Amino acid sequence: MFCLLSTFWQGLLSTFALFALSFAAVLFVRLAVYYIKNSKKAETKPEPAAESQPVQEEKPPEKKPARPRRRVHTIEIRPDEINRIYVADRNAR
Q1: All residues at 6 or more sequence positions from 85 whose CB lies less than 8 Å from its CB, including other chains
Q2: In sequence order, what E strands does the chain have?
Q3: What is the pLDDT of residues 25-38, one digit of tens each?
Q4: pLDDT tens digits, residue range 11-70?
Q5: Residue from 76, 60, 70, 66 nearest 93 by CA
Q6: pTM value?
Q7: CA 75, 79, 81, 83: dihedral to nearest 10 degrees?
Q8: Within 13 Å, how many C-alpha atoms sit on residue 84's CB side?
């Protein structure tokens, strides 16, 4: 009986240890990827010029004219005849 109980606790502790190890590994990999991406961005930033130049205000970009809205057509779906509905991506054009 004692052998069965000891293997239960050993298995439970092994499961928790494996979970903690996996969690730490995933956290380490995500932090490494984050720091690698940010270090590349920091390297590509241009250094500020030694001479101070007057700051020019940038004009806001011009807004595109609003597109006229398309009419929405109603559709009727009969569930006894149709089992799947595919929706097209609007940006796929």
Answers
A1: 77
A2: none
A3: 999 999 999 999 88
A4: 999 999 999 999 999 999 999 999 998 887 666 656 555 556 666 777 777 888 888 877
A5: 70
A6: 0.40
A7: 100
A8: 1
